[in-house]
Amino acid sequence: MPALCRDCGAEPGEVPACPDCRGRRIIRHPELFALHIAHIDCDAFFASVEKRDRPELAARPVIVGGGVRGVVTAACYVARIHGVRSAMPMFKALAACPDAVVIRPDLAKYAAVGRQIRSMMERLTPLVQPLSIDEAALDLAGTEALHGAPPAAVLARFARDVEREVGVTVSVGLAGNRLLAKIAAGRDKPRGFCVIGAEAAALLAPEPVRLLPGIGPALARKLAGLGITRLAHLQALDDRTARARLGDDGPPLVRRARGEDCRRVDPIRETKSISAETTFEADICERAALERQLWRMAEKLAGRLRGEDFAAGGVVLKLKTASFVQRTRSRQFAAPTRLPDLLFEAARAMLIREADGTAFRLIGIGAQPLLPGHLADQPDLADPSAPRRVAAQAAIDALRARFGVRAVRRGRGL
Amino acid sequence: MRFKADRATLLKALAHVQSVVEKRNTIPILANVMIAVRDGRLTLTATDMEIAIVEEIAATTSRNGAATAPAATLYEIVRKLPEGAEVELEHGGADAQLALRSGRYATSLVVLPTDDFPSMTAGTLPHRFSLSALALRGLIDRTRFAISTEETRYYLNGIYLHAAETDGTKVLRAVATDGHRLARVEEPLPDGAGAMPGVIIPRKTVAELRKLLDEVSGEVRIDLSDTRIQFRVDAITLTSKLIDGTFPEYERVIPRDNDKVLRVGKKDFADAVARVAAISSERSRPVKLSLARDLLVLSAASPEQGTATEELDADHVKYDAGPLEIGFQARYLNDITDQIAGDVEFRFSDGAAPTVVRDAADASALYVLMPMRV
Fold it and tell me: How far apart are the C-alpha atoms of A144 and B300, rounded to whole Å?
């Protein structure tokens, strides 16, 4: 069976440890040298960057996040051993791991490291689709002649290069499509290298439905109500039953549960839009309740726009009805913005027309087109209160950076 | 209905009304002009439901009645008739066709029922004053370029006309802004305008009114309520709905303490802006003004095409404050200088703050311009 040493790139054959480097990270898979879609994900990215810059912390539990009242943005693997997880409130994290070193996030630094890694990816293939600051999908089809090695070997070398040149570790998932590559990348963290080939359906069958990207707590609960808790249960449904029980989203969901995915790696997609969406615990039809959810998403979107230094040239409102019918509405701004109020107001104006008593299961708000950040919220002669709003938002952002997202909230979000 | 009119008179009136008719044609009758003869008077009426124009013209009438016919077609036909021709129109009532004869030419036009023609009622218009056509032109020309086309802030899609006070003098003030620039122009307050509500006159109404003002020189009578405004220019009555919204508190964005003053000849400045801006076809690229004592350097750059600079020295500019760099969109600068005859006066605060622009010889107009980051 084809085999590859993740740590030195040797092709060791049927031995338990690599004869060249004595490492035990040998990957064996019948399709190892045939698969070419990869998902690369940095391990505990923010925490790893901090550990790189402060080597004395290497063995200590490190948490990147806000103050005592904030939340965990990232936790290193040492902290994870103590049960610390991202998005956990800081007081809980510190209760679980009292001697953790807490570091305030330095997003600009992480973005710079993310860019460095991305440019290294772009040396492997032009088909790099960034999915977040530390995560990307790559298609290495047809690059074997260029690199003189099959994708698996190129990726293993890449992982070693990142470790040596950047000082953080990555996990690699290699598969026949993006979905499986993503699942693979998560299976062997940290410093992972996992391959999923034709065994995908059998491999996924015993897993809980939450493993599938896109199945959040709300959908998982709904599925559990139908007796579907494992991916095998989904795999067993035929198209008609799937549609009857799960609506129009049923058949595609079943296909994904079987490990099928036909999305292409699209290198230009990432910068087209930034959005935030949420699926409700229970369907919502009241306008006021929808607006509260919309406000939360508008704040999230505004935060992402600031984080990635973009401005919204317009807003897209996305709604999904209880019967899984999607509605999108869009509107352009005269002047680009990334203030949550303005994003919310524009989306709310569109929501008012849609909130006619229909029950919705999802609401989302996106920025489109995305414009360079410096264009956001330029002073506006027709809006004398604009400078005050920009200043108020800056004050809110500063407080949140110190005390966490929940430190300051607008009344309409309560 | 039957009347005879000379081609030139009819053509001029049709030109006025056909520009008001609804061009999108969603409701067929709105593309029509209503032609009516009553008691020896001939009137043409057109409306798009927001604006209505009624024009009375000289004609030899011989039978009362009314008909509606497609305004654009009628205008084209009359326009193609020979100069000096006499035109006769006749309509037999109900759904008979409208006959038009001139010399050896004859045509029949399909009509739509006059009952379906919408009438736009003005309601009571409690405020009335008069303004010379010249003054009204001045108010419009110096503000209309700043009207916003942004649909979300519909209350910016017009000229805000209201009574105000400047340094203790009562004035009639017109203001327009699109957020990037603001124009504020004043006329002495006419009798009868003191108690008028502030009204926002829609862009299309402004454009139609402005066309009419090209042809007259006398007084324009203005009647208004808080929902309608009516202009009477000679034999033409233009009635329009007003924008139902609140104009922003623009006074708060007009800087009071800008103390860095630049004076420059309008032509020198406008020509230099046009020359340096020519380097970039991208409209949003700024022209940078770099100021030092009695020196103005204009520059523009385009990553694809190169750079351009032009200097205006002490022979052309007067500036005695500290060095300053500030950028503006070329078109915004030109829109303002187009309205200024002699010297332009800029009052800056700093490179990021709104700048005040005035005609050095005329205090009635004030412009505020937002800089672009350069």
Answer: 47
